[in-house]
Amino acid sequence: MELIVRAVDVGSGNTKFVTGVVGNEIRCASFPSVAYPSSGETPHWPASERRKTVCIPVGPLFYEVGPDVGLAADTFRAKQLHDEYTESPEYMALLRGALSMMKVSHIDLLIVGLPVALFSLKKSALEKTMAGEHQIGGGKTVTVAKAMAVAQPQGALVHYAAEHKKMATIGTEQSLVIDPGSRTFDWLVTRGMRLVQKQSHSINRGMSDVLRLLAAEISKDIGSPYRDYDAIDLALRSGKSPVIFQKPYDMGRHLPLAESVAQQAVSTMRQWIETPESLQNIILVGGGAFLFKKAVKAAFPKHRIHEVKEPMFANVRGFQLAGQNYAASAIAPGRDRGAGEIA
Length: 343
Known about the structure:
Elements: E1 5-10, E2 14-22, E3 25-32, E4 36-38, E5 54-58, E6 61-65, H1 89-102, E7 106-114, H2 119-130, E8 132-137, E9 140-151, H3 152-163, E10 174-180, E11 185-191, E12 194-195, E13 201-203, H4 207-222, H5 229-238, E14 243-244, E15 247-248, H6 255-270, E16 281-284, H7 289-299, E17 305-307, H8 314-331
Parallel strand pairs: 1-7, 7-9, 10-16, 16-17
Antiparallel strand pairs: 1-2, 2-3, 4-6, 5-6, 8-9, 10-11, 11-12, 11-13, 14-15
């Protein structure tokens, strides 16, 4: 009987998860990492008002999470921008929300991710917390038999190797995986699939810093507080001006400021890399890849910078692949561990 393997990556900006695997296709979905608390389960909405959310019980409260959580009544959106976020009720609500949307009642192996700087500190505790029975609302539960935590960019390395058909060779190569996310800027140096701890780290210098900085500049410019971070993010990604006070606002003059955040993060990372000339793969993933690409290329001008399709899902797809390989080895204990399995 084939084991059920699933993966979740709870980021500060978005929660990404695997909904299923069809052949070689790993199907993913995501929702904003926002959990709206309430004292009771959300009542059934009229058909015209129903939204794509679930109400997850955690401790004494319920948390509404999902793609339409922006429609929740409260305008305050707390972000989990701290190192203990994996121990917060909001984290658990987001993870259980992902479990709910997977539409399975039992998972044999669940893969979850951690920022590089927190990996050795939080791995064991997170794996212990994730295993067991999870309440997902409406009297339903999902049981997780075993959980495994991996460093977030490590998943991207597995995904890159599979996408570029390098599974047979990646085990002998040195790689650098760069993952600019919402809260953290992570990087991972590996020999094969093994983490080189002293050259890998993460810093709190992600897309959220860019959005806050630009919002402050726009506020000064228009003479009024402006905090529509989603509009700024969309403008950066699409190149289209956000509409402020019913008029398109030209963000062009603020772009050098946004790029300066990327340069600061990449410059810090560069100091950790001892032998850049030995790197055979430099892989850029994550939701902020589009903004950090220029700074990464400037820091490694003699290297080719590799990217993957749908970089936001690179980590979670790699988690899934590594989990499937691990599960296969558990079924056949005598089989050698392959390149796609995380040690």
